[in-house]
Each structure stands twice: as C-alpha cells, then as structure tokens.
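Much of the work behind modern protein science is quiet bookkeeping, done one molecule at a time. Below is the pair of lines this work produces for a single protein:

***
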Amino acid sequence: MDTPKTPPQKSHGRKTIRPTLKPRELMESAPDLARAWKAQVITLLPDAFPGILGESLTGRALKDGLWQLETIALREFGEGKHRNVDDTPAGGGAGMVLRPDIMAAAIDHARARIQPAAPLVYLSPRGRPFTQAIAQDLAQGPGVSLICGRFEGLDQRVIDHYRIAEISLGDFVLTGGEIAAQAVIDATIRLLPGVLGNEASTEEESFSDGLLEHPQYTRPAEWRGQKIPDVLMSGHHGEIAKWRRAQSEGLTRQRRPDLWAAHHPKPNSD
C-alpha cells in the first residue's frame, strides 16, 4: 500500500508573523492578513465588535479577508485587582479620565501590530468633522488605529505625545467612541475594492463630488398615484445625467447651504 504523500508546504501566503513580548491572551486569535486593510480598535468594550460591521456587505468582506478587525481590550492593560484604567481629573471636576500610562501601553501594543503608515485616531466630539474625503483617504492606506474614549475623555498628554488625530461624527456627545468607531470603519470599508461589487456605485452617491445624491426610483413605475419621472424612463442617458445633476444641486442648495457654498463659491467682487 502506497504511503500518502504529505502536501508540500507553501513558501508564501497571506499570513504574516510578528514577534511580541505580550502574553498570548492579549493577542487576537485571528492571524494578520498581508495586504488586507486593517482596523484596530482600542476599547473598554471589545465585545461590542464587530457589531453591525459583521453583517451584510462589510461582514462578508470581513469573512473574505478583504479587511481585518482587531480589538485591543484597554482593561487588559489596567492596574490592580480590578484593572483600573482611569482616575479623577486634575484640578477637580466630575467624572473620570483615562490614564496616560494605561492608554500608552495599549497604543504601543497596537502600533507594533499595524503598518506605521496607518493613522492613529481618537474619536472625540472636539475633533474635526468626519467626512467622505477622510474615509477615502483612510481607504487608500493600510488601515487605521482607533481609540474609543470613555468617561470624561483621555489625558491630553497622550494625545500630544503620539500626535493623535481627533475625529468627530458631529456636534453631539456619545457615551463612548465605539459607535463612532463602527461608523468610521463602515464608511471606509465600503470604499475598498471588491466590497460593494459595483465600484461605480460609490461615484454618484452623496458627498462623492461635494453634493447630495439625487433622488432614486425603482419599480413599480407608478405607486399610489406617483410616477417615476419621465426622463428616467426615456433611455436618454445624457438627459438622465443632466436631470440627476440638477436634482443634486437643488437638494444641496436647499438642505445643505454649507456644502453648496463650498461647491459653488461666490465670485470675488473685486
């Protein structure tokens, strides 16, 4: 009887190996995937992930290895029996502040496991507004390390030392940065090649060219007395493009005058 041959070992693949001095329980069980866009999330609530990111198109892309998610549990770097990560604010005041030494240990661990070109971002209500342009920039890089704030925020010395960029979802305050992190990741992931399947679908949507998206219609041709605009049923692609452009401009001018002013600046009076 012939002895079964052992399959030859592959000399290369998608898995990469990095040395570490951290205990294995601090490491993610999934191996790093070479060339996959990587999202790291430093959080007190690692069980909140992947959350919605594990569903639909982003979830399928995660399963297919088009991107990779790694959560870094901040509590693992805490001190004492209860793994404390915060302390009272200097100068007094309500709430607690995330300690710089604890966060720095988590950041150092995370940054050793991602390409240096990936930005380090703190999700904060005082950060610059998150936009489609920022999502596009992130999608073009190797990934991102996101810090989810909690309590009264993060010690400023950590932000200054690591030159951390601050990003906000808008002029409101959440209880933590986890929801914001998922929104940033979702907006970025859908721009990666192969995630949506139809790359052209991202070219006409809201904010892609500084305007809101035009209205969309589908079957039936008439619904509750309302018909699809005739131009969309004409088959004349040039006229359809003109109609959609006019609709986008009208909606933007009406609903988002700030976007309209940036897109269509007034001529100088000089």
Summary: The first strand starts at residue 15 and ends at 16. The longest helix spans residues 237-255. Residues 8-13, 19-28 have pLDDT under 50 and may be disordered. The CA atoms of residues 15 and 33 lie 5 Å apart.
